[in-house]
Amino acid sequence: MKWIKLYATLLVLITAGGCGIAGNDHTGSTFSGSSSENHVHTFNDWVDCELLPYVEDEMARNTWLKGRPFKVVAMRDDEILPEISNLSAELRKKITDRLAMTWGVIPVWNPARKPWKHHRNLAELQCHDLKPAAVYIGLDCRRSPINPELLQVSVRALDLQEKTWVPGFGIAWSGPGNPPELAALAVSNPDEHLLGLRPFPMNGDQADLVAEYLAENLSCLVRESGEEDVRIYQHITGSHNHFVDISFRLVDNYLNKFRDVTIVENPEIANILLKWEFFDLGNGLHQLWIQCTYLNDGKRIPGTDTGVYVNFK
Fold first, then answer.
1. What is the rounded CA–CA span in Å between residue 263 and residue 233?
2. What is the pLDDT of residue 40?
3. 238 dihedral zone (left: phi>0; alpha: psi -120 to 50; beta)
4. Distance between CA atoms of 219 and 217, rounded to whole angstroms?
5. How would residue 28 be classed by pLDDT, with cut points 50, 70 and 90?
6. Given pLDDT bands bounded at 50, 70 and 90, which one contains residue 238?
7. Which of 87, 140, 241, 286 fits 184 for a cystine, CB–CB 3.0-4.6 Å?
8. Helices 2-16 and 52-61: crossing angle, nearest 10°?
9. Least confident window among 172-181, 190-199, 234-243, 281-290
């Protein structure tokens, strides 16, 4: 443990070595003060010398942020964006890489989804921490409306439970962007880190993706629950919603690809009951939940409920 801490300390010192005095002064770049364009002259310098040390320190020490799982997302003013620019995606990677080495900081891992393999074990799953994010670190990257050659970047933290900005947290920069940075800002793609969550719900024609998403989460949750003898009976009642019926039946097929998960047709030989709940949240937005309960007493298996947002607009 001592060697790990020493390595992390040396890495921070090496990274900050070329930053000079600006790397130790955040007061000029927080929202409570002026922008940091007087401290550093390039976007990369600001990221390395001010942004990364500032976010690392706040996530480790700020009582609103310390120990709370978080995601880094693209934002515009107060809105979470379902798409993220290449520039923001690169910035997110730098932030998460830095915070992954910070003691007590809990990033929510978002691995790229890969095609499902047949006949594998639950132990082979690359399960990530399925705790929902409590905080969004919002990246607002844009061109200046006055001078399109200037970049404007601000970083704030949104408390998802309180639905408020975290007080005292914020840092911003404005300055000239170089051609690669401006080009990266101009290209955006759907943010897969948010797929299936409220800001980026799945569509009504993605029943297969919904089933895969739910089955993957459920598989990891069942594994984490410690259940060794997994015999699942799927309780299909008919929902009067074609999308829900297809999704729920497909979950069964995905789960059946694991050697240590047995899907049974007879509830008398099952020990786990799989059922669903479907909620209409208004304006075309719905939420589909999958639940596991013990057949012997009807109690839910702790920590195995998983849900997904779907938009039928």
1. 6
2. 56
3. left
4. 5
5. very low
6. low
7. 87
8. 140
9. 234-243
* Cα separation values, 272 from 227, 257, 296, Å: 10, 17, 8
188-190 vs 83-85, strand pairing mode? antiparallel
Element (H, E) at 223: helix 207-225
| pLDDT greater than 90 at residue 170 | yes
For the chain, give the longest Cα–Cα distance: 72
The pTM assigned to this predicted structure is 0.67
Query: Any idea which residue has 């921070």 for tokens?
Result: 12
Of 197, 195, 213, nearest to 255 (Cα)?
213
d(C-alpha 177, C-alpha 50), whole Å: 17
Burial (0-12, 13-18, 19+ Cβ within 10 Å), 201? buried
Burial of 287 (0-12, 13-18, 19+ CB in 10 A): middle
CA distance 28 to 46: 12
Q: Is 214 exposed, middle or buried (0-12, 13-18, 19+ CB in 10 A)?
A: buried
The residue-averaged pLDDT of 205-231 equals: 77
CB atoms within 10 A of CB 27: 10
DSSP 8-class letter at 102: S
Which is nearest to 270 in space by CA: 246, 294, 253, 251? 294
pLDDT tens, residue by residue, 119-132 = 445 454 455 545 67
Q: Tell me, what amino acid is at 121? A: N
* Structure tokens belonging to residue 68: 């709370």
Q: What's the pLDDT at 73?
A: 92
Within a 10 A sphere around the Cβ of 255, how many other Cβ atoms?
22
Q: At what angle do helices 86-99 and 179-186 cross, to 10 degrees?
A: 100
Amino acid at the residue 233: Y
Please, what is the average pLDDT of the chain?
77
Within its chain, how far is the Cα of 202 from the centroid?
A: 15
